[in-house]
Amino acid sequence: MTELICITCPRGCHLLVDEENDYKVTGNACPRGAVYGANELKNPVRVVTSTVRTNSADEPRCPVKTNGAIPKGKMFEIMKLLDGVLLEAPIKTGDVIIENVFDTGVDVVACKNID
User: Fold this and answer.
1) What residues contact 34, with CB distance under 8 A and at least 6 apart?
2) Following DSSP, what letter does each residue of 19-30 receive, concatenated?
3) pLDDT truncated to tens, each residue of the chain (115 aa)?
């Protein structure tokens, strides 16, 4: 059995996941916790949020995020990739900064308008 704390909502349920019993989850207060617990052991994913440099004197950094969840094991690779990005203003919310990052089918997008 593996113990986890569910991060699906602020409640933070203490889950027990039984890998030997088809990833049966107990301790969840809602169905989302059961899905989270099983997926966290089978294929953990996260949305990555960060900032990247811009050429704007007024706004030297622009917040960005993945527009979907990526494999947890790719997080540090994506962060390293973002460290080398320099955006040219103007930037609009939703602009694709990196398309299909590491062949995940997920894009990194801008989260702020910068003129």
Assistant:
1) 25, 28
2) GGGTTEEES-SS
3) 999 999 999 999 999 999 999 999 999 999 999 999 999 999 999 999 999 999 999 999 999 999 999 999 999 999 999 999 999 999 999 999 999 999 999 999 999 999 9
Cα–Cα distance list, 93 to 49, 101, 107, 109 (Å): 14, 18, 13, 7
The C-alpha atoms of residue 60 and residue 72 are separated, in whole angstroms, by 28
User: What are the phi and psi torsion angles at 53 (to 5°)?
Assistant: -70, 150
φ, ψ dihedrals at 42, nearest 5°: -80, -50
